[in-house]
Amino acid sequence: MMLRRWLLNTVIIVILGHLMAGVGYEGAAAALLAGAFLGVVNAIIRPLLLVITLPLNLLTLGIFTFVINALMLQLTAWVVPGFAVAGFATALFAALLFSIFSVMLSVLLKT
């Protein structure tokens, strides 16, 4: 199950790298490492941030979750060499697309 999620994250990173000018990766190794690190970050740090920002998330009817997701993408770009996100606006749009692609691929692959 974790391997599927890792590969799914990697595929979405590759798709975003091709679709968006502000998201890039240098080779398959960078994409695989970014997919793995993003999975770890989403499993450990993201839930903590969601709990801390719960009042703000309730006020925005859950839209603030995209800000959290954008921060996770930026953190991944900061830590993983060869993976880059151009700025916060790019990360925010990439997080929105990442969520859409994740749902679509999960349904298609039944993960």
What report would you give on this structure?
- This protein is mostly helical.
- The chain has one domain (2-109).
- The chain is built from five helices and two strands.
- The chain has helices at residues 2-19, 28-52, 54-59, 64-79, 88-109; strands at residues 23-25, 83-85.
- Strands 1-2 form a two-stranded antiparallel sheet.
- Helix 4 crosses helix 5.
- It is globular and about 40 Å long.
- It starts with a helix and ends with a helix.
Q: What is the SS-derived class?
A: mainly alpha
Shape: globular
| Cα-atom radius of gyration | 13 Å
Cross-sheet strand order for the largest sheet: 1-2
Mean pLDDT: 93
Distance between the termini: 8 Å
Strand content: 5-15%
Helix count equals: 5
How many strand elements?
A: 2
Helix content: over 70%
Order of helices and strands: HEHHHEH
Poorly predicted runs: none
Mind describing the biggest β-sheet?
2 strands, antiparallel
Structurally, the number of domains stands at 1
List the helices and strands and how they pair.
Blueprint: H1 2-19, E1 23-25, H2 28-52, H3 54-59, H4 64-79, E2 83-85, H5 88-109
Antiparallel strand pairs: 1-2
Helix pairs in contact: 1-2, 1-5, 2-4, 4-5
